[in-house]
Structures are given as structure tokens and as C-alpha cells.
Specification:
Layout: H1 11-16, E1 20-24, E2 27-32, H2 36-45, E3 48-51, E4 56-61, H3 65-72, E5 85-91, E6 97-105, E7 111-116, H4 121-131, E8 138-141, E9 147-152, H5 156-162, E10 177-182, E11 185-190, E12 199-204, H6 206-218, E13 222-224, H7 226-235, H8 270-277, E14 283-290, E15 301-303, E16 309-318, E17 325-332, E18 341-346, E19 349-356
Parallel strand pairs: 3-13
Antiparallel strand pairs: 1-2, 3-9, 4-7, 4-8, 5-6, 6-7, 9-12, 10-11, 11-12, 14-17, 14-19, 15-16, 15-18, 16-17, 18-19
Helix pairs in contact: 2-7
Length: 367
């Protein structure tokens, strides 16, 4: 294994299962166990599970917790009820994205859990602490203390209830969570997901995470790697930080402005987003469907018919669920309207396509 890479509590299980392992976000992670298509379809048609213990968990507490989180977060946490989850971003003052994340409203006053992307943990925590100046808050990075398993697919609810014994999860609405106490330790079960299907996340101690993973394996739940996690989230129109969001790609450019509440009094990056919403952006993220089975990959040029380059692919696949070649691309705003013809330069050939909605697959979340 490469030096300086971290491992999750489930690393030994991945190796024992013969998973193809690869560095990802500073961790050695499973890319696939059998093949991406089999794992992808398991989630779409039944249930699969992912080791997402590499994600970051940062707890914010203190009398200014609500004010502080609302200051660094684009969505508005003030109306949140206990047990609710919100999606949004942290931004730089120029509107670029520090990270996209989930905020969990704890069942106690003045406390929130922020779940952040694995590749950004150190950067995000440093940013949070820097922005905490002047606020009465504690920024507590507990990432090493937690493991996390995502159970996703139409049979996820049944699996969580029958295999892991969390009978009450049927009462959880989309983007809510509840707490359990198991052997004196806290377990968090939330209902969010990153696949377009119904799904749950189980946060527990590293030891309990290993036990839950074993129970799920013994019950026949298909282990899934990061390969199909990417194909699933992409079909569902969900962004990946570093591809569809970055320091250079704002939520407005990415078509995620609905998660930026401009009626809030303030948040970091608000003024820059207001200018962008008023028309001061040159690029927009679009979906493109290609009239061929050729596969558009990240970094491939997007062109007009005459060969003028007007954008670049950020993520692309031949969709497993839809049997179509599709991609996200960041293109000049003038060519972002639905139905606009665009061409993708794939190796030495150029393939015609058109702009379509970014949500390629009809999601099936439980509302």
C-alpha cells in the first residue's frame, strides 16, 4: 500500500473480498468487488452497500452555533427542526466552492453535525476554524472516530430494519435522521443518499461499523465500490466536488443556486453569487446526450460544429441504467440552453450531441 494513505475500519474486509483497491481522497478505497455494472444494477434493482467511512464528521457547538453555521453555509439552517438534514455549500468570498456538504440539526440546542467530503477534510476544518473568529463556537473534527456505511436501493428500508434491527427507520422522511444508543455508544441513522435511490447512512464507531458490515454481508447485501457510486450519482444528476463544483465552479455555475438562500441576511460568498445570478457568469454546467455509444471522459473538449471549443466534459459515461452516452460539461453560457447542438471530441473523432437536463435518471427517493 502507498505511504501516507489512510484506511477505513473496513479495509481488511475489502481485501478479504478481493476488492480492487485504489487511492481516493487520501484513503485506500474499494473501486469494485465484482464489476461496476453488477454493483450498479444491484443498487438500482434491490440493495447495495458502500463503505463511506472516509467522509468527514465535524461537530459545531456553542451559543453562536446557529449564527456561525448560517454564516459559512449557503442554505438557511434557521428553520431546521431537530433531526433534519440540509444540503448546501461553503463558499469563498468570490463565490467559488470550498465544499458541498450536509448539515444535521442535532437533538440538543446549539449543536450541528457537518458531513464533508473526504478529500477536503483538512482544508474544510482549517477554513471552518478560520471563519470561527468572533463566534462563540467549538469546531470539533471527529472524523477519525466514526465509520459510515451507506445502504442504498429500493430494498434499503427493509434491509436496515430486518438485518440491522433499526425498526423505526420507516418513519424517517427524506433528509432526516434519528439517534440510537447501542452498547453505550451513539449510532446515527439518516435517510439521504447519493445514488438516486432510497437509502440510508449508518454512522457508528469503527468497531460497530465492522460489525454492521459483517451482518449486511451475511444477509447477502451486495458490497459496492466507488466505481458504481460515481455512475449512480452521475445518472441522478448529483455533483462531485472536484468535477462539478470547485474553487473555480460556483453553485450558480453548477445549476445549484436553489441551495443558496439569497434572502438570508448574509453568508460568505453571497455578494459574488448575487452578481452571478444577475448574469455575470461565463460558464454553466449542462447535461449532454451523445448520438453514439462513444464514451465522453472528463477533460474531453466540447465544440461547435465548426470545431470552436466552447467547454469541457467534467464527468461522462455510457449510462448503465439508460444505455446512452451522456456527460456533464462546463460550457460557455451562450450554449447552455436545452436542445442546443454540441459536439464532443473523443480521441480523434467528433460526436454530435445535444444539451439535456442534468438529471438523466428519474430518481426514486422516498419523500
Amino acid at each position: 500500500m502507498e505511504e501516507n494513505l489512510q484506511i477505513t475500519p473496513l479495509y481488511d474486509s475489502h481485501v478479504a473480498l478481493g476488492a480492487k483497491m485504489s487511492p481516493f481522497a487520501g484513503f485506500m478505497m474499494p473501486i469494485q468487488y465484482s464489476d461496476i455494472t453488477t454493483e450498479h444494477l444491484a443498487v438500482r434493482n434491490a440493495v447495495g452497500m458502500f463503505d463511506v467511512s472516509h467522509m468527514g464528521e465535524v461537530f459545531i457547538s456553542g451559543k453562536d452555533a446557529q449564527k456561525y453555521v448560517n454564516h459559512i453555509f449557503t442554505n438557511d439552517i434557521r428553520p431546521m427542526a431537530d433531526g433534519q438534514v440540509l444540503y448546501g455549500m461553503m463558499l469563498y468570498p468570490d463565490g467559488g466552492t470550498v465544499d458541498d456538504l450536509l448539515v444535521y440539526k442535532e437533538f440538543e440546542p446549539d449543536k450541528y453535525l457537518l458531513v464533508i467530503n473526504a478529500a477536503n477534510i483538512d482544508k474544510d476544518v482549517a477554513w471552518m476554524k478560520e471563519q470561527a473568529a468572533g463566534f462563540d463556537v467549538v469546531v470539533d473534527n471527529q472524523s477519525p472516530l466514526w465509520g459510515q456505511i451507506a445502504v442504498q436501493g429500493p430494498d434499503a428500508e427493509k434491509t436496515i430494519m430486518e438485518v440491522l434491527g433499526f425498526k423505526e427507520v420507516a418513519e424517517l422522511g427524506f433528509y432526516t435522521f434519528r439517534n440510537y444508543e447501542i452498547a453505550g455508544k451513539r449510532v446515527i441513522v439518516s435517510r439521504t443518499g447519493y445514488t438516486g435511490e432510497d437509502g440510508f447512512e449508518v454512522y457508528a464507531t469503527p468497531e460497530q461499523t465492522v460489525a454492521y458490515w459483517k451482518q449486511l454481508l451475511e444477509a447477502g447485501v451486495v458490497p459496492c465500490g466507488l466505481g458504481c457510486r460515481d455512475t449512480l450519482r452521475f445518472e441522478a444528476g448529483l455533483p462531485l466536488y472536484g468535477d462539478e463544483l470547485s474553487a473555480d465552479i460556483s453553485p450558480v455555475m453548477a445549476g445549484l443556486g436553489m441551495f443558496c438562500k439569497m434572502d438570508k441576511e448574509e453568508f460568505i460568498g453571497k455578494d459574488a453569487l448575487a452578481a452571478q445570478k444577475a448574469g455575470e457568469i461565463s460558464k454553466k454546467l449542462v447535461g449532454i446526450e451523445i448520438e453514439d455509444k462513444a464514451i465522453p471522459r472528463a477533460g474531453y473538449p466540447v465544440e461547435l460544429e465548426d470545431g470552436t471549443e466552447v467547454g469541457v466534459v467534467t464527468t461522462g459515461y455510457h449510462s448503465i441504467s439508460l444505455d446512452k452516452s451522456i456527460c456533464f460539461a462546463l460550457v460557455d453560457k451562450a450554449y447552455a440552453a436545452l436542445g442546443t447542438p454540441l459536439w464532443i471530441h473523443i480521441r480523434k473523432r467528433v460526436f454530435p450531441g445535444k444539451v439535456v437536463k442534468k438529471r438523466f435518471y428519474q430518481t426514486r427517493y422516498k419523500k
